[in-house]
Amino acid sequence: MDRSSTTSHIGGTSKINTHMAQMKIWNSNETPSKGPYAVTIGSYDGIHKGHKEIIQNLADNSKKSLLITFDPHPKAFFMKSRFRCLTSMDEKIQSLADTDLTDIWIVSFNDRLANLNHSEFIASILEKIEVSHLAVGEDFRFGKNRTGDTGELKKWCDGNGISIDVLGDVTDGNTKISSTLIREKISKGEIEKANELLGGEYSISGTVVKGSRRGGGIDFPTANIKISGEKQEPGHGVYCGKIQIDEKAYRAAINYGTRKTFGEGDVWLEVHILDFDQIIYGKDVKIFLTKKIREEKKFENIDELKRQISKDVEACRKD
């Protein structure tokens, strides 16, 4: 295949970068002061279809829209290393740049915030900014032990002349779309379903590092990617997808697993980039998973492995 047919600029990258430059990011030691804002609050991990519906509600109600989100994710704060996120904060911001959101306030989630009751939370967060409209999902909870609910928010909004929309669940059939559900699908390797729920392709960012170099020895060189330990890992197996290098996308066959044929125990993310021969050690890249094509398998010999990889590559070339 002609290399030009396997590469492309990431769709909408220039538009996203332009919006990122225009979108205002407020840190925890700052207070958003460009209101009045239509506001929503939440972790917004993964920026799935439910999140996007709320953000659209903000845009429909005000020219200025503000997401109040938290770093770290509250579950990461309480669960420590046992929690896996769909998006890092940088990835979250990049995803939000593809929406109509105008402002983000990143609030540090710490012991002080975790111990505020729902009234104190409102006083410490919402009452510090100019709010014209509020939108949340019907299961939104806040304050210590999650004692605050949409009823408390309605009381506060009514008392301050602020409109509020409590949006119902966005569902897939009879199942609520949630970040928890999407994490579960990704961990099981059900990447096509996860992408459907996200409304886009699940991505993993990382840095290219040197590996064993076995791939080149069997005619299928791979880029070995070091990823964050906080990121939700896909189920072990072989996937079709893309890799973004310097804002250009290349088709790829991707393996996530332990290199069973070579008897190794460490888990690796290995990417064979179709029709690509550049050295990219040290590069920061982003991998997009589109389809799982098979489970991880131990092969009897190298020739059997090579034949299977060749089939995998052809499957990904057609994907």
Q: TL;DR of this structure?
A:
The protein has 319 residues and is an alpha/beta fold. It folds into two domains: 3-168, Rossmann fold, CATH 3.40.50.620; 202-318, Riboflavin kinase-like (Elongation Factor Tu (Ef-tu), domain 3, Beta Barrel), CATH 2.40.30.
From the 3D coordinates, which CATH architecture of the largest domain would you assign? 3-Layer(aba) Sandwich
CATH class of the largest domain, named Alpha Beta
How would you spell out the order of helices and strands?
EHEEHEHHEHHEHEEEHHEHEEEEEH
Question: Strand share of the residues?
Answer: 25-35%
Using DSSP, what is the number of strands? 15
Structural class label? alpha/beta
Q: What integer is the average pLDDT?
A: 90
- How many structural domains can be distinguished in the coordinates? 2
Itemize the secondary structure elements and their pairings.
Elements: E1 7-9, H1 13-22, E2 24-26, E3 37-41, H2 49-61, E4 65-71, H3 74-79, H4 89-96, E5 103-108, H5 111-114, H6 118-124, E6 131-137, H7 150-159, E7 163-167, E8 171-172, E9 175-176, H8 179-187, H9 191-198, E10 202-209, H10 214-217, E11 223-227, E12 237-245, E13 248-257, E14 268-273, E15 284-294, H11 302-318
Parallel strand pairs: 2-5, 3-4, 3-6, 4-5, 6-7
Antiparallel strand pairs: 1-13, 8-9, 10-11, 10-15, 11-14, 12-13, 12-15, 13-14
Helix pairs in contact: 8-9
